[in-house]
Amino acid sequence: MSSFRAQAATRRCEDAPQHPEDCGFCDSGRGTVPPKTCTPVFWGRVAGADLEGIFIENSARAQAQDLMPKTLEGQITMEKTPSYFVTKEAPARIYAMCRETKLIVVVRDPVTRAISDYTQTLSKKPDIPTFQSLTFKNRTTGLIDTSWSAVQIGIYAKHLDNWLQFFPMRQILFVSGERLISDPAGELGRVQDFLGLKRIITDKHFYFNQTKGFPCLKKAEGSSKPHCLGKTKGRTHPNIHPEVVQRLRDFYRPFNMKFYQMTGRIFGWDE
Question: Which PANTHER family match (predicted)?
Fold first, then answer.
């Protein structure tokens, strides 16, 4: 996702976040402005024209900024698109528009992420093959099918390599999806620091909803009522054979180790 900092009605790009998957948290809090559209996917489009040329033109920059609402000094507007992190062309396109862009990527255990991805698809297409059959090219040999998007997206180190060709690590923040659930205020504190914002969001803004299994906002911005995730979040995952889960953990382990080294943060997915 991307965000722009502006003075009065004049926008200038400065900060930008994204998610490889929807982790269920909406952009909210003081100092931020809701985007006009939920997921513009501006830098992820591939149809219609020679985008590699278009994205360096002033008209393209204006088009991207026109998607954002006008913001005041001290405010940051964020555009959230899950697919940017895994879209090969996205880093070059965003860099061509604003090389000072900051990126925020929410990541979670790639095995859990793959199962969650499958669960979401299953809710829309009940007749799809089983998770096990989609995971393996050959079940007997245990060869993982990396062409399946649910598996491929979780190879975070590979995708990060693509982004590091354009953006230094100091402009990228990786947020733990697990800690957004166990310690939302702490993890959002890191986000506020990264964006140069005063730490306003704290523990007092959250409560844990036992029914959903997720933290909720005690009071949503501009509302007197609590705000929780929608009913599409927190679906019960199907039972996956432990052997399949272990094969996936073994597959992801070297990629996770490389990702920890690249980011300087141990996410604990292999413990």
Answer: HEPARAN SULFATE GLUCOSAMINE 3-O-SULFOTRANSFERASE 3B1, HEPARAN SULFATE SULFOTRANSFERASE
Domain ranges of the chain: 2-263
pLDDT in tens, 125-159: 999 999 999 999 988 888 999 999 999 999 999 99
Per the annotation, does 88 bind a ligand? no
Counting Cβ atoms within 10 Å, is residue 242 exposed (0-12), middle (13-18) or buried (19+)?
Answer: exposed
Could you read off the pLDDT of 4-63 as tens digits, one per residue? 333 222 344 545 555 554 333 334 344 554 444 444 445 555 433 444 444 444 555 666
Considering the four listed CATH numbers 1.10.10.10, 3.40.50.300, 3.30.565.10, 3.40.50.1240, the one that applies to the domain covering 2-263 is 3.40.50.300
Q: Give the containing element (helix H, strand E) for 33.
A: strand 32-33
* 5 labelled ligand-binding: no
CB 153, CB 20: distance < 8 Å: yes
236 has binding-site annotation: yes
Instruction: Please check if 81 is assigned to a binding site.
Output: no
Q: Is residue 235 part of an annotated ligand binding site?
A: yes
Sheet order of strands, 76-79 included: 10-13, 2-7, 76-79, 32-33
* Single pTM value for the model: 0.79
- Is residue 237 part of an annotated ligand binding site? yes
| Residues 166, 148: Cα–Cα separation, whole Å | 26
